[in-house]
Amino acid sequence: MTLQAVQLYINQYGLFFLGFIIFLEYLNVPGLAAGIILPVAGVWVKSVGISFFVALLVSVVAAVTASWLLYYIGFRGGDFVLEKYLQKFPSHKRIVDKSYDFVETKGSVGVFLAKLVPAVRTIISLPAGALKMNFFKYSISSCLGIIVCNFILMYSGYFFGDEILAKLC
Predict the structure, then answer these.
(1) CB under 8 Å to 158, separation ≥6 — which residues?
(2) Digits of tens for pLDDT over the chain (169 positions)?
(3) Half-sphere exposure of 14 toward its Cβ, with a 13 Å CA cutoff?
(4) SS3 for the chain, per residue?
(5) Which end of the chain has less Cβ packing within 10 Å, N or C?
(6) Are 122 and 27 in contact (CB under 8 A)?
C-alpha cells in the first residue's frame, strides 16, 4: 500500500479506516506497515483538527484487539499454528524462533520490548499464546508497548506533518 493510498483512505474514511488498517497491520497482513500508516495518520490528525489522543486511542484499541486475536490463535493452536505460519512465511523463522525464546526467557518484559520492534511486534503474540503466558500480564505489557510505539510513530507525523506535506506537494 502506497503512502498516497493510505492518505486517500484516511481522508475518506477517517478514524474507522485508521482502526481497521492498524488492526490488519497488527495481524501481520503483508503490505501494511505501521511505519507508514501511523505517521500518515499523525499528519491527517493535525490537518483536519481531530484530537491526537482520540486517534492514538483508536490505534491502540485496534492493535491490542489484533494482538489478542493472535495470542488466542497461539494459545489454542500452540506449536501447530507456529509450524503452519512458518510454512506460509518461511522467511520469518528466525524472527519467530527469537520471539519464542524472548517470551520464554523475558516474559512480559520481553513482550513489551518486542512491541517496540518492527515485524517482531506483530509476531510476538503467537509465541506468547503458544507458551500460555498469563493473559493479564501479556495484555498489560502488550498495551504498554503498543502505546509507546504508536505514540512515537503517530506523533512523528503529527509533529513533522507540515514538512512532510510540503515535500510531497
Answers:
(1) 42, 43, 45, 46, 52
(2) 555 666 677 778 778 888 998 899 888 776 667 677 888 888 888 888 889 999 999 999 999 999 999 999 989 987 787 788 778 878 877 877 777 777 888 888 989 998 888 778 888 898 899 889 999 999 999 999 999 999 999 999 888 876 655 565 4
(3) 7
(4) CCHHHHHHHHHHHCHHHHHHHHHHHHCCCCCCCHHHHHHHHHHHHHHHCCCHHHHHHHHHHHHHHHHHHHHHHHHHHHHHHHHHHHHHCHHHHHHHHHHHHHHHHHCHHHHHHHCCCCCHHHHCHHHHHHCCCCHHHHHHHHHHHHHHHHHHHHHHHHHHHHHHHHHHC
(5) C
(6) yes
**Identity (one letter) of the amino acid at 86?**
L
Residues in the chain: 169
C-alpha grid cell, residue 34: 505501521
Three cell numbers written together for 143: 498495551
